[in-house]
Specification:
With 280 residues, this protein is of the alpha/beta class. The protein contains 13 helices and five strands. It is elongated, with a radius of gyration of 21 Å.
Length: 280
């Protein structure tokens, strides 16, 4: 889809892009070769930007496009930069208050899963994340990335696709778990765990020394991040289906990766019993 995109060119909005498509100019190459149709000055300006676009794509630089595309169209960066993607999710000691800190981070790149734990290896994230050029989160614009920047002093200025906004534009709202359910993703033994329960799991690990609570928290955090990939792929296919290129073969969903941690059912049941009277 990126090679069919023109709304990253200065002066070309969504409606102008649609007019180019309607005129049969559906790829960068079409426009570069369309001088008589576009007029000399307009063609020269478009061709110059599209030739630069091709150079930046060849250089594997999604930041060039993220800096000029409307944020609502950042989904178009996928799949051209799929090999440079890091899906990222964090858990914290609270729900975003000033005294909260990060407890765990999960990072998935479509091939391998990494996890980071406060008090163990959390600082390794700052090194590892720099290997990726495109970040994918759910609500990361408002939550994950600001906390990561504050915690590590990193700019985290990579191109970024926030699935909260992509999915909302398709009518999928209600938080990450609600979007997953509507798009056919089943969390199984972690179905009743949410962000607040993740806080309780960390407290149980810290206060009781319950290693199985940490395992459960990591299983939950990793499930969050692994599920971002099928959500993005489905959202991408739905977005393409809204364009004149709806006959394009949709991207296939990959098999889920083996996950290194499992939820500990007795810990979940104990915490649910203990906190249910308080409205959990």
């Amino acid at each position: 889809m990126l090679r069919r995109t023109f709304c990253h060119v200065p002066g070309v909005g969504i409606k102008a892009e649609q007019r180019l498509w309607a005129a049969g100019l559906v790829t960068w190459e079409d426009v570069v070769q369309a001088a008589p149709m576009l007029g000399e000055r307009r063609h020269e300006r478009l061709a110059r930007h599209l030739e630069e676009s091709q150079r930046q794509l060849s250089a594997n630089n999604p930041g060039f496009f993220a800096g000029t595309l409307p944020s609502s169209e950042h989904w178009r960066l996928y799949p051209e930069f799929r090999e440079s993607v890091a899906y990222v999710d964090i858990e914290t000691t609270g729900l975003g208050g000033p005294g909260d800190h990060i407890t765990t981070i999960a990072l998935y790149d479509g091939r391998s899963i990494r996890h980071y734990v406060h008090g163990r290896n959390l600082n390794e994230f700052a090194r590892d994340i720099q290997a990726y050029r495109l970040l994918v989160t759910y609500n990361g614009k408002c939550f994950d990335l600001p906390l990561l920047r504050a915690s590590f002093g990193l700019p985290l200025d990579q191109a970024h696709i926030d699935l909260r906004y992509v999915l909302a534009s398709l009518g999928y709202k209600g938080g990450l778990k609600g979007c997953e359910r509507r798009m056919g993703l089943d969390r199984g033994d972690l179905a009743n765990v949410d962000g607040y329960f993740a806080v309780l799991l960390w407290r149980d690990y810290q206060q009781r020394g319950n290693a199985q609570a940490l395992d459960t928290l990591l299983a939950y955090n990793i499930r969050d991040v692994v599920n971002l990939e099928p959500l993005l792929i489905q959202a991408y296919n739905l977005k393409v289906a809204q364009t004149p290129f709806h006959s394009t073969v949709p991207l296939a969903l990959p098999p889920p990766p083996p996950e290194p941690f499992r939820a500990h059912a007795p810990t979940l049941e104990r915490l649910l019993r203990h906190y249910a009277p308080f409205g959990y």
